[in-house]
């Protein structure tokens, strides 16, 4: 009987952990990371307050688990992009921008919470930098390609930093902060096309 019950308990344990993570994402999105209490998360998850500590010692550990999940997703996406042709076209860059736009929205609560936590906690600052480095490395590949085809002496790493900063803040404004001006809406295609045109024109100095 004990052997039969173990898989059931394991399954229930995984379900509870997933419920807490999912609830945390919803509460972080609604209240912000710093304003969220553990009881907010357990109430949203429909679990007892004490059950939280079976899985996470504190709120920071839960956010760290969400960050690890997000990093795993980013690295898997990076692996899918590996081995692409060493060239840059509008469609090629657009596909990359679209992946980032959709990934940012999918993980929006974590993105905002990790950034908020990074301003007060060195461990989360390091985690935020790690997440950013994955995207930075991909954009640096694009800018290195462009360097071979354009005049000027702009460092590819600096160009990648500028490009990623523009993409990050654009995603934040339009996905988390209500648009610019507030209340304005963009379709996914409008957002992705705008970013792609801006990046390609800005990095290469030529329109598509």
UniProtKB/TrEMBL annotation:
Q: Enumerate the InterPro entries for this protein.
A: Homeodomain-like_sf, HTH-type_TetR-like_transc_reg, HTH_TetR, Tet_transcr_reg_TetR-rel_C_sf
Q: Which GO molecular function entries does the Swiss-Prot or TrEMBL record give?
A: DNA-binding transcription factor activity; transcription cis-regulatory region binding
Q: Which residues bind DNA?
A: 37-56
Give the signal sequence positions.
none
Q: Give UniProt keywords alphabetically.
A: DNA-binding, Transcription, Transcription regulation
Q: Indicate the segments forming the HTH tetR-type domain, all copies.
A: 14-74
Record-given protein name: TetR/AcrR family transcriptional regulator
């Amino acid at each position: 009987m004990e052997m039969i019950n173990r898989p059931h308990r394991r399954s229930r344990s995984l379900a509870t952990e997933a419920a807490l993570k999912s609830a945390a994402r919803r509460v972080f999105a609604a209240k912000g990371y710093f304003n969220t209490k553990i009881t907010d998360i357990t109430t949203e998850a429909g679990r007892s307050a004490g059950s939280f500590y079976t899985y996470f010692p504190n709120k920071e550990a839960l956010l760290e688990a969400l960050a690890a999940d997000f990093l795993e997703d980013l690295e898997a996406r990076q692996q899918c992009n590996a081995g692409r042709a060493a060239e840059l076209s509008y469609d090629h860059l657009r596909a990359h921008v679209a992946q980032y736009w959709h990934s940012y929205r999918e993980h929006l609560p974590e993105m905002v919470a990790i950034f908020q936590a990074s301003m007060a906690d060195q461990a989360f600052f390091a985690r935020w930098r790690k997440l950013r480095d994955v995207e930075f490395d991909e954009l640096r590949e694009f800018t290195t390609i462009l360097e071979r085809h354009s005049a000027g002496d702009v460092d590819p790493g600096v160009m990648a930093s500028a490009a990623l900063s523009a993409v990050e803040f654009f995603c934040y404004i339009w996905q988390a902060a209500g648009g610019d001006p507030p209340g304005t809406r963009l379709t996914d295609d409008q957002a992705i096309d705008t970013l792609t045109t801006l990046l390609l024109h800005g990095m290469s100095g030529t329109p598509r």
